[in-house]
Amino acid sequence: MYALTPCAAGCGRNALTGSPVCAVHAADPKKEARRIVEYITQRELIKDLNASGLSFENIDFSRRRFYGCNFSGASFSQCSFVDSVMRMSFFDFGRFYDCDFSKSDWQFLSFGGSSILNCTFEGSELVHINFGGAGITECRFNNSNLYNSRFINAQMDCSDFINCNIKKTYFIKTKQEGISFKSSNTAEAIFEYGEGD
Q1: I need a labelling partner for 144 at 20 to 30 A (CA). Which of 5, 77, 108, 131 fits?
Q2: CA-CA distance, 63 to 39, in Å (whole number)?
Q3: DSSP code at position 70
């Protein structure tokens, strides 16, 4: 997992990778984001990276492998993670707009409390993913495996889960409007407490 190095400013947050301070106390957060992007794009394998709180726009992170990384509170606009592999990484309270996560292989990630708008996760392995409390609007998860993932207390609007494996996927207390589960195995998903026990 990413190093838990305290921010030198003493705020209690963790310092960015390669920096003595967190994104909040960075003299130039945009410069820090560019530095992190350069670090990622020069590698196929990225491990133990802390980029929490930074903003990324129009960046191609495709076909890379991420292990134990922290992007909590980060913002992503028009970014691509197509055909990426991720394990044990965090995107909690992040903001995602118009991003492409299709054909990805992700396991044990957390998007808790995130805002996800007009993104596609189509054709992906999304196993053991936490979307608890997330706001998911105009997104497409079609043809994906969402086995044992969590959408507990999520707000989901105008999004498609067509032809998905949602076995043991939790949708407890989700607010849903305009959601399509066409051709998905909804009988094996969990929509209320007590189901699947």
Answers
A1: 77
A2: 15
A3: B
